[in-house]
Amino acid sequence: MNENSRYFIPAPGVGSVLGDAELAVLGSLVRSGESLSQGPWRDRFEQALREHIGSRYALTVTSGTVAVRLAVHLLDLAPGDEVIVTPQTFKATADPLLAPEVTVRFCDVEPDTLNVDVASFESLITPRTRALILVHYGGRPARMDEIMRVARRHGVRVVEDCAHALGALYRGRRPGALGDIGCFSFHSSKNITTLGEGGMLTFDDPEWAERIDRIRSNAADGVFVPSPLLAGPYERAEPWMMWAGDSYEKECLHVRHPGGNATLSEAGAAVGLIQLRRLGELTERRRWIAGRLSQTLAEFPHVRLAEVPDDIRHPYHLFTFFVRPGHGTSRDDVVHALEDAGVQVQVRYFPLHLRPEWRGRGHRLGECPVTERLWFHEQVNLPCYPSMTDGQVEHLVLALKAALGGTSSYEEARA
């Protein structure tokens, strides 16, 4: 039995909706007899992504985790360099920094948005700081204009983890084209999917595009220079000598990355293209649900909900609110009451700096006090995804009212 099946409203395992259009394109692709790798569907999907995000390049890979790892690779970090990272995100955002000999500084977050706090970011910058890795938490864009002004003043690169932010707008622009590098996930739980797994990097640098394309295609990312032709009987490459051209024409002075296979399949790209066309409808469903929840929470003074300014479009990958302490109802009481009413709650995410792998690198409780206070005492994430039915939404509204003290029980709220 699936653990989630005991809930009337389970936490989202699937963040999108697949339908007849996705099935039709898969059937057409399979019957075509064409290769299912590195074909025209990937090209079409990437072109559509470039146009949607507004970046010069959009290169798909096999997962959001791979996208972040490759973004860190592009930073060309050296031993002793420093990188600032948000602690309020999934572990994949920071895990690539466990391998290099770099110093990681965790930046505290804003108490309303859970995005990086600009003042905290600037206070952590030293002459060795090379980059900031942030997340647009829940899909709400971080304060990118202020962040980029600080970053440019100090020569710091900014990597946007946009895993939650597809469908968002920030002052007329889209996440993924606001910093230096954008990283996206098309996992089953995200705002669109490429059949369960998939990711993307966005940026404007042509050299980076060449490097990433080599790495994802089983070629080494290295420093190459023209080479004289090989001597003897191997003076030129013939058309039937597969992949021989570089071997004849170049010398490699230095290998930065050995390369691998991170190619998004044609099936994933084809479904991704259909999903991208449906992004508006999927996002509006999330926003409608968020509106109903926000109306309900506004009735309770001991609840805190961040306002969304007019120049921000929030896609509500996550719906978050905070229970003010000291009003007779704790965050934990609220969560337990929701669970008893059949609503599965998953509070995301455990502060990264307190995970064992980062404690092993010297990070400790008290390093990010706002993050810690919110996660341990105030933060609640509610289910909010396109496949929720109207009946489930109304059930959640009534369960919220009961949990927050408006009625003594869910049954009384329903009556």
Describe this structure as you would to a colleague.
By secondary structure, the protein is α/β, with parallel strands linked by helices. It has three domains: 3-216 and 261-276, Aspartate Aminotransferase, domain 2; 221-257, no CATH class; 279-414, Aspartate Aminotransferase, domain 1 (Alpha-Beta Complex), CATH 3.90.1150. It contains 14 helices and 14 strands. It has helices at 20-32, 40-53, 64-74, 118-124, 144-154, 206-216, 245-249, 266-277, 279-297, 331-340, 356-359, 369-378, 390-403, 410-414; strands at 57-61, 82-85, 103-106, 129-135, 157-161, 169-170, 181-185, 199-203, 221-226, 250-257, 303-304, 312-313, 319-323, 379-382. It has a seven-stranded mixed β-sheet, with helices on both faces. A three-stranded antiparallel β-sheet has the order 11-13-14. A two-stranded antiparallel sheet has the order 6-12. Strand 4 (129-135), helix 5 (144-154) and strand 5 (157-161) form a beta-alpha-beta unit. The relative contact order is 0.16. The model has no long low-confidence stretch (mean pLDDT 93).
